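Q: What would this chain look like folded?
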Amino acid sequence: MFGYQMMLQLILATLLGAILGLERELKEKEAGLQTYSLIALGSCLFTILAFNYFDILSGHAGLDFDPVRIIQSIAIGIGFVGGGAVFKGKSYIEGLTTAAGLWVAAGIGIAVGTEFYVLAVFTAFVALLILSGLGAVEEKFFRHSV
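A: My prediction, written as C-alpha cells:
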C-alpha cells in the first residue's frame, strides 16, 4: 500500500511543479512556486489515491470504479482554477499563460502519479522552455506596440 515510492512520487511532482513556479516567480507573476508546486502535488496525490483505491476495490462485486475519472476531474477542476487566473481588460487579456501553466503542472502531477516519470520530467522541461523562451520570441516578432 503506502510506501516510500509514493512519497518519492509526491516529492518529484512537487519539485517539477516548483521548477515551473520558479520561472513564474522570476517573471513576478501571481501564481508561482507555491501554486505550481501545490497543483502538481495535489494532482499526483489524487492520482495515486485513485489507482490504489482501484486496486483495493477491484474484484468486489457490484463496485464500478474507474481511476481515469479522477484524472478527468483533475483536468476539469484545474481548468476552473485556471479560469480564475484570467483577467480581461478593455484592450487586453491577462493570465492565459498562467492558466495554461497550471493545467500543465496538473498534468505533470498526474504523469508522476501514474509512474510515467520520464514523460513528467520531459514535459516539465518542454514547459519550462515554452515559459522562459517563447515569450521573448512573441515579444520580438509578433507583438507590435500600440
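The mean pLDDT is 86.
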